[in-house]
Every structure is written in structure tokens, then in C-alpha cells.
Design brief:
single chain, alpha+beta, toxin-antitoxin system
Length: 140
């Protein structure tokens, strides 16, 4: 969301009262945006796209994750990938038909913690059964 210069907006209203409807409309749009943003909070069992840092080096990538737990401002998640990791022991093939995953996917067996602010958008909600499957499969 773009920054709004509140001081300039108030100065415009003071000099030209006809700009009051524009100022009010702007305030409503900002408030609706803030309320919408606050409403989207990750819950255990949901799949979200999140800004996930690379394991080696700097940078990050927007990728799907399974929310395993939410604790205050952090989430414990497991990262998904659509790259075939069948020959590796650090990933498990995800059962077919999971809501929020459109491709054959693998999930990392090493959970990681992310700030809740890294969670971008919810894409599915397979719920507790997927978390239970993950916990059993990884011995978590």
C-alpha cells in the first residue's frame, strides 16, 4: 500500500473544503486495507505462500508452506517444493489431492520458523489431518 502524506491531505482540506470528500474516501480505503490485512492470520493446517529465506546465502523466495504451529508472531512451517526430491531423505512426497497444492509436491522434513509477517497469502486449508500425517511421517 502506498504511503499517504496525511499532513498534505489535511492542508488541502483546510485550503479547499471541496477536497473533504476525497480525504474521507482516502481514509476509508486506508482503514479497509488495514482491517483486511489484520484479518488474514495463519492457522495450523493451512497452506500459505510465504517469503522463505534461502538455506544457503542471502535472498528469499515466495513459496508454499504448511503451517505446523503458530506462536505469537512466529510460525513453524514446512516448505513445499514441486521439484522431484524422491531420491532424498530430507523430503517426503505429499499425498495427492491436497487443497492449495496444484502440482505433485514434496515437503521438507526440517521445519523452520518464520515471522508471521513473512506469510503472504493463504492458498488452501487441508487442516489437521495433513499436519498429523506430517508429524507421523517425520516423527515430530
Amino acid at each position: 500500500m502506498d504511503q499517504i502524506d496525511l499532513g498534505a491531505l489535511l492542508a488541502d482540506v483546510a485550503h479547499d473544503p471541496r477536497s473533504l470528500p476525497i480525504a474521507l474516501a482516502t481514509a476509508v480505503v486506508v482503514l479497509v486495507g488495514l482491517l483486511r490485512r489484520r484479518g488474514a492470520r495463519p492457522r495450523t493446517g493451512e497452506i500459505w505462500f510465504a517469503d522463505v529465506p534461502f538455506e544457503e546465502g542471502s535472498g528469499s523466495k515466495d513459496r508454499p508452506v504448511l503451517v505446523l504451529a503458530v506462536d505469537g508472531r512466529t510460525c513453524t512451517v514446512a516448505r513445499f517444493t514441486s521439484q522431484d526430491k524422491g531420491a532424498r531423505r530430507d523430503h517426503l512426497r505429499v499425498p495427492a489431492g491436497i487443497p492449495g497444492l496444484n502440482r505433485t509436491s514434496w515437503v521438507s522434513v526440517r521445519p523452520m520458523r518464520l515471522r508471521r509477517s513473512a506469510m503472504r497469502r493463504r492458498t488452501g486449508s487441508p487442516g489437521a489431518p495433513l499436519v498429523s500425517w506430517y508429524d507421523r511421517a517425520t516423527g515430530r
